[in-house]
């Protein structure tokens, strides 16, 4: 079976330490969580930044500090989130790619996002896609609905995205597709044949849909961004147990874990 890429998503844009005290929010805490996840088999680190009051931020100084702290200690591939947080203006979010991470997310469409709004205006998305192309940063395309996939294919057809495309199929955000296996299979069937993909399953269905994704050849994401619980009613004691569980799932399914170097080849970085 093809090797599986595990991405750790340690922090996310919404939860705070009140929701789960183990959530890493300072640069040091985020770097510690990423290094531990790398030892447990993660090849990519999906990074959201927080300020000293735990609010999502696109402050490039905080991003630089996190990237340096991680880079000093391991070779995990850093993927900066350009989603950042619902209240951070798109113009601040897009500037994060100037730090030249190996990878960054690209959210192709605006949408309702829980009780908030996730603004990704068409002109801004095109500008960000072009900038990532010019800087050689691999976009991870976050698709929360079939229309988002169509939008990405249009960007590809216009030369703003280079193949092979890499997708995150996001399930379970209120405002996007529900977290069920039918929606996952529908999306996987519609992807271009040479695309790579992972499941991002938010909340309760995180474990089941991560397992389905790995079983049918996808990559996997693990961490407190996507679920605060290790099982119903029990908070995860950090990112490590979630990453370790995903590594065990991959192993049980005969999917060897891709190293960062192998991931560069698999994802066409
Ligand atoms: N928080 C996830 C639902 C991003 O960071 O750009 C989606 C996400 C997007 O990870
Ligand atoms: Zn994210």
Description:
This protein is α/β, with parallel strands linked by helices and 269 residues long. The strands form four sheets. Strands 1-2-5-6-9-10-11-12 form an eight-stranded parallel barrel, surrounded by eight helices. Strands 3-4 form a two-stranded antiparallel ribbon. Strands 7-8 form a two-stranded antiparallel ribbon. The protein is 36% helix and 19% strand. The chain has nine helices and 14 strands. Strand 7 and strand 8 form a beta hairpin. The chain is globular and about 45 Å long. The protein has helices at 27-39, 60-71, 90-94, 122-135, 146-157, 181-190, 206-215, 239-252, 260-266, and strands at residues 6-8, 44-47, 49-50, 56-57, 77-80, 103-106, 111-113, 116-118, 138-143, 166-171, 196-201, 219-222, 229-231, 234-235. The model has no long low-confidence stretch (mean pLDDT 97). The protein has one domain (6-266): Aldolase class I (TIM Barrel, Alpha-Beta Barrel), CATH 3.20.20. Helix 1 packs parallel to helix 2 (60-71) and helix 1 (27-39) runs parallel beside helix 8 (239-252). Bound molecules: (5S)-5-amino-3-OXO-hexanoic acid and zinc ion. (5S)-5-amino-3-OXO-hexanoic acid is lined by residues 12-13, 81-83, 105, 107, 142, 170, 173, 200, 202, 225. This is 3-keto-5-aminohexanoate cleavage protein.
